[in-house]
Specification:
eight-stranded parallel β-barrel, 8 helices, alpha/beta
Length: 241
């Protein structure tokens, strides 16, 4: 089953976004940001007959901050999101690993990220859910861009963002790794464009071949609402659904 992220509907209320998605697929990933923040609007989720995965907030969330109080605050928000998601039956959560404030702090940020991953793993065990960490696009201020970092995910799952991997030139390598969850969108290899499937340079035939396993949840994560339905149909063809 291929689900749809609420990302392209982010300017709508969460209720209206889910109303748009429900006729297309029974699986939705809620990007818990802005009008879709489940800590403020989560009561809407139970109004729909949908299965949910939850993308934790990105704004102001830095699990790699060199400042311990900021990391603790991010962990607290993540825990609140997990508790809220559990109430509507969500079992899979996605989190970004954080970012670097200054290039000179790169090694300190890596150490901070490792400490946060230990705490996130503890949260996953405590609440009995799968928390996955998402690889990031190619940028000097981001961490977790290449497959070697997967060794840091003790007790956590992995979300492969194919668009992010394409900007870093490592998609083929990531496709050979253990994947729990996948974000599907296209780009031209330079920036994180979240284009419709087929509008960039990603070989989605190869992506589908490598990730057909039913144990991998698949989420279409586009920027434009108009691209959702044609991209979903294309992916269904490729995955044989």
């Amino acid at each position: 089953m291929i689900g749809i992220s609420t990302f392209p509907y982010i300017r709508m209320s969460l209720h209206d976004a889910l109303s748009q998605i429900e006729p297309l697929t029974p699986l939705v990933e809620v990007l818990s940001e802005s009008r879709h923040d489940i800590l403020r609007y989560g009561e809407v989720l139970s109004s729909f007959n949908l299965k949910y995965t939850i993308h934790a907030p990105i704004t102001d969330m830095n699990f790699s901050s060199i400042h311990a109080p900021l990391r603790r605050a991010a962990l607290s928000v993540l825990e609140d999101v997990v508790k809220c998601g559990i109430e509507v039956g969500a079992e899979t959560f996605v989190a970004h690993p954080g970012y670097i404030g200054w290039s000179d702090d790169y090694e300190f940020a890596k150490i901070a990220m490792r400490g946060s991953l230990v705490e996130i793993s503890r949260l996953a065990k405590e609440y009995g859910v799968l928390i996955t960490i998402e690889n990031q696009p190619n940028s000097d201020y981001l961490l977790f861009k290449t497959p070697d970092v997967l060794s840091e995910l003790d007790g956590l799952g992995f979300t492969l963002d194919v668009g992010h991997a394409n900007t870093a030139g490592v998609l083929d390598e990531f496709l050979t790794c253990d994947i729990n969850h996948i974000h599907l969108h296209d780009n031209n290899g330079g920036t994180d464009e979240h284009l419709a499937i087929g509008e960039g340079t990603i070989d989605f035939k190869e992506v589908a071949r490598a990730t057909k396993d039913d144990g991998i949840t698949k989420i279409l994560e586009l920027r434009r609402e108009d691209d959702v339905e044609p991209s979903l149909n294309r992916l269904r063809e490729l995955y044989g659904e």
